[in-house]
Amino acid sequence: IAGITQAPTSQILAAGRRMTLRCTQDMRHNAMYWYRQDLGLGLRLIHYSNTAGTTGKGEVPDGYSVSRANTDDFPLTLASAVPSQTSVYFCASSDGGQGTGELFFGEGSRLTVL
Amino acid sequence: GNSVTQMEGPVTLSEEAFLTINCTYTATGYPSLFWYVQYPGEGLQLLLKATKADDKGSNKGFEATYRKETTSFHLEKGSVQVSDSAVYFCALKNTNAGKSTFGDGTTLTVKP
User: Chain-wide mean pLDDT for chain B?
Assistant: First the structure.
């Protein structure tokens, strides 16, 4: 069982470039999330989706957009990357509904914006 | 709003020492509580969880008890191993809200 697959694993990007981080899950979970992890700041929620066709803003959404065309995929797009978006990005999913809300995480995508 | 406060790290212990990582929370309603572990170079994975007051979650020798009266969910292990070296995150989730709130993480290093 693959769980959550993220791509790319690592990327160096010039400022101003557009970048899409891909996330795919095979658990048929309703809810999906994007977090960024920065030293000393823990995990911060960027965007989330409770079900296919809906998305919502987390605590740090500026500069990022997401879409949820189907249950399995939840790509994160940086329209015009800036150095402050250098971070490790984690995609996660949960079964939502009345479950306990355990999150399943991908391995992360390390992004460096120069 | 919801918040989670974890004991600041880093924590360095010798093998077989006793571990406690403190976690307290602020939340409305009756959240579920979680400990996640992140090994070097990996994503987070669930270590244990508790869904109601006085529940004890346990896994791999780690334990944490949901204490509503003190709004705490402290992580403990009686005898740590080098392989326990990782970053530990306390988190909560209100089932109605659908989003998790994480603490800042505590880095544990266990030396042989």
Answer: 93
Contact B43 A42 (CB under 8 A): no
Sign of CA dihedral A88, A58, A105, B56: positive
pLDDT over 80 (residue A49):
yes
A83, A111 contact by CB (below 8 A): no
A100 touches chain B (CB under 8 A): yes
The answer to whether the CB atoms of B32 and A100 lie below 8 A apart is yes
Closest by alpha carbon to A32, among A64, A68, A61?
A: A68
Q: Cα separation of B35 and B44, whole Å?
A: 10
Distance from first CA to last CA of chain A, Å, rounded?
A: 36
Interface check for A58 against chain B (CB to CB < 8 A): the answer is yes
pLDDT tens digits for range B69-88: 999 999 999 999 999 999 99
- Is the bond into B10 cis (omega within 30 degrees of 0)? yes
A31 with B49: Cβ contact below 8 A? no
- As given in the structure block, the two tokens for residue B22 are 């403190």
pLDDT at B96: 54
Q: Which two tokens stand for residue A32?
A: 């999906």
Min distance A24 CA to chain B CA atoms (Å): 15
The pair phi, psi for residue A22, each rounded to 5°, is -100, 145
Instruction: For residues A46 and A41, give the distance between their C-alpha atoms in angstroms, rounded to a whole number.
Output: 13
- Say what the pLDDT of residue A97 is: 61
> Please, what is the average pLDDT of chain A?
93
pLDDT, position A1? 60
